[in-house]
Design a protein that fits this description.
Elements: H1 20-26, H2 35-47, H3 53-81, H4 89-117, H5 121-143
Helix pairs in contact: 2-3, 3-4, 3-5, 4-5
Length: about 140
Protein backbone atom coordinates (compact mmCIF):
# COMPACT_ATOMS: atom_id res chain seq x y z
CA UNK A 1 0.00 0.00 0.00
CA UNK A 2 2.88 2.39 0.66
CA UNK A 3 5.04 1.63 -2.38
CA UNK A 4 6.05 -0.66 -5.20
CA UNK A 5 7.60 -4.05 -4.61
CA UNK A 6 9.94 -5.45 -7.26
CA UNK A 7 10.55 -9.15 -7.52
CA UNK A 8 12.88 -10.77 -10.07
CA UNK A 9 11.86 -14.26 -11.18
CA UNK A 10 13.71 -16.55 -13.54
CA UNK A 11 10.46 -18.02 -14.79
CA UNK A 12 6.76 -17.59 -14.08
CA UNK A 13 3.42 -18.57 -15.57
CA UNK A 14 0.91 -15.96 -16.62
CA UNK A 15 -2.79 -16.77 -16.79
CA UNK A 16 -4.51 -14.86 -19.57
CA UNK A 17 -7.86 -14.98 -21.31
CA UNK A 18 -6.20 -14.23 -24.65
CA UNK A 19 -4.90 -17.23 -26.53
CA UNK A 20 -1.33 -17.11 -27.92
CA UNK A 21 -2.63 -17.50 -31.51
CA UNK A 22 -4.67 -14.31 -31.11
CA UNK A 23 -1.66 -12.42 -29.78
CA UNK A 24 0.31 -13.43 -32.87
CA UNK A 25 -2.52 -12.16 -35.08
CA UNK A 26 -2.60 -8.76 -33.37
CA UNK A 27 1.00 -8.01 -34.35
CA UNK A 28 0.31 -8.50 -38.07
CA UNK A 29 -1.36 -6.20 -40.58
CA UNK A 30 -4.73 -7.48 -41.87
CA UNK A 31 -3.34 -7.93 -45.39
CA UNK A 32 -0.58 -10.20 -44.07
CA UNK A 33 -3.02 -12.67 -42.50
CA UNK A 34 -4.39 -15.74 -44.25
CA UNK A 35 -8.13 -16.20 -44.76
CA UNK A 36 -8.43 -18.62 -41.79
CA UNK A 37 -6.33 -16.26 -39.66
CA UNK A 38 -8.58 -13.34 -40.58
CA UNK A 39 -11.69 -15.38 -39.77
CA UNK A 40 -10.28 -16.37 -36.38
CA UNK A 41 -9.38 -12.79 -35.54
CA UNK A 42 -12.74 -11.43 -36.75
CA UNK A 43 -14.52 -13.92 -34.48
CA UNK A 44 -12.28 -12.92 -31.58
CA UNK A 45 -13.01 -9.22 -32.13
CA UNK A 46 -16.76 -9.83 -32.39
CA UNK A 47 -16.76 -12.02 -29.28
CA UNK A 48 -14.97 -9.29 -27.34
CA UNK A 49 -17.36 -6.60 -28.69
CA UNK A 50 -14.68 -4.80 -30.72
CA UNK A 51 -14.81 -3.31 -34.21
CA UNK A 52 -13.74 -5.91 -36.77
CA UNK A 53 -14.51 -3.86 -39.89
CA UNK A 54 -10.87 -3.38 -40.97
CA UNK A 55 -10.29 -7.13 -40.84
CA UNK A 56 -13.63 -7.89 -42.54
CA UNK A 57 -12.71 -5.61 -45.45
CA UNK A 58 -9.33 -7.36 -45.70
CA UNK A 59 -11.07 -10.76 -45.58
CA UNK A 60 -13.49 -9.96 -48.39
CA UNK A 61 -10.71 -8.37 -50.42
CA UNK A 62 -8.65 -11.55 -50.15
CA UNK A 63 -11.69 -13.67 -50.96
CA UNK A 64 -12.40 -11.92 -54.28
CA UNK A 65 -8.73 -11.54 -55.19
CA UNK A 66 -8.68 -14.59 -57.55
CA UNK A 67 -11.68 -13.15 -59.39
CA UNK A 68 -9.88 -9.82 -59.66
CA UNK A 69 -6.92 -11.57 -61.27
CA UNK A 70 -9.29 -13.20 -63.77
CA UNK A 71 -10.91 -9.82 -64.50
CA UNK A 72 -7.46 -8.33 -65.09
CA UNK A 73 -6.70 -11.06 -67.64
CA UNK A 74 -10.07 -10.40 -69.31
CA UNK A 75 -9.27 -6.68 -69.59
CA UNK A 76 -5.73 -7.31 -70.84
CA UNK A 77 -6.81 -9.76 -73.54
CA UNK A 78 -8.64 -7.33 -75.84
CA UNK A 79 -6.09 -4.61 -75.17
CA UNK A 80 -3.20 -6.82 -76.28
CA UNK A 81 -5.00 -8.84 -78.96
CA UNK A 82 -6.94 -5.96 -80.46
CA UNK A 83 -6.18 -4.43 -83.80
CA UNK A 84 -2.82 -2.69 -83.89
CA UNK A 85 -3.76 -0.77 -87.05
CA UNK A 86 -5.67 1.95 -85.22
CA UNK A 87 -3.20 2.18 -82.34
CA UNK A 88 0.28 0.75 -82.04
CA UNK A 89 1.15 -2.00 -79.59
CA UNK A 90 3.25 0.42 -77.54
CA UNK A 91 0.27 2.74 -77.11
CA UNK A 92 -1.98 -0.16 -76.14
CA UNK A 93 0.49 -1.33 -73.53
CA UNK A 94 0.96 2.24 -72.30
CA UNK A 95 -2.82 2.64 -71.89
CA UNK A 96 -3.04 -0.60 -69.91
CA UNK A 97 -0.92 0.90 -67.09
CA UNK A 98 -3.43 3.67 -66.21
CA UNK A 99 -6.25 1.14 -66.47
CA UNK A 100 -4.53 -1.09 -63.92
CA UNK A 101 -3.67 1.84 -61.67
CA UNK A 102 -7.22 3.14 -61.91
CA UNK A 103 -8.59 -0.23 -60.93
CA UNK A 104 -6.22 -0.44 -57.97
CA UNK A 105 -7.29 3.03 -56.82
CA UNK A 106 -10.97 2.11 -57.24
CA UNK A 107 -10.45 -1.05 -55.20
CA UNK A 108 -8.65 0.81 -52.37
CA UNK A 109 -11.17 3.67 -52.44
CA UNK A 110 -14.08 1.30 -51.93
CA UNK A 111 -12.24 -0.42 -49.09
CA UNK A 112 -11.75 2.93 -47.32
CA UNK A 113 -15.33 4.01 -48.06
CA UNK A 114 -16.57 0.79 -46.47
CA UNK A 115 -14.58 1.58 -43.34
CA UNK A 116 -15.57 5.25 -43.32
CA UNK A 117 -19.30 4.87 -43.97
CA UNK A 118 -19.88 1.43 -42.46
CA UNK A 119 -20.70 -0.26 -45.77
CA UNK A 120 -20.81 -4.03 -45.84
CA UNK A 121 -17.29 -5.33 -46.58
CA UNK A 122 -18.59 -7.74 -49.24
CA UNK A 123 -20.06 -4.76 -51.10
CA UNK A 124 -16.73 -2.94 -50.92
CA UNK A 125 -15.04 -5.95 -52.52
CA UNK A 126 -17.76 -6.69 -55.09
CA UNK A 127 -18.32 -3.22 -56.59
CA UNK A 128 -14.79 -2.75 -57.99
CA UNK A 129 -14.89 -6.32 -59.28
CA UNK A 130 -18.23 -5.67 -61.02
CA UNK A 131 -16.90 -2.44 -62.54
CA UNK A 132 -13.78 -4.15 -63.81
CA UNK A 133 -15.76 -7.11 -65.22
CA UNK A 134 -18.05 -4.59 -66.94
CA UNK A 135 -15.04 -2.87 -68.51
CA UNK A 136 -13.70 -6.29 -69.57
CA UNK A 137 -17.04 -7.25 -71.16
CA UNK A 138 -17.22 -3.90 -72.99
CA UNK A 139 -13.67 -4.28 -74.31
CA UNK A 140 -14.24 -7.90 -75.36
CA UNK A 141 -17.43 -6.91 -77.21
CA UNK A 142 -15.67 -4.00 -78.88
CA UNK A 143 -12.82 -6.18 -80.16
CA UNK A 144 -15.02 -9.14 -81.10
Amino acid sequence: DTGVRVEHLAESSWQSLIQPEVLRLIALEPQALSLPGLLRYIRFLRDSAQDASLYEVAFWGKLVHPLLALATVLVATPVLLGSTRSAGLGLQMFLSVPIGMGFYLLHRTFAYLALLYGLHPALAAAVPLAVFLGVAAWLLRRVG
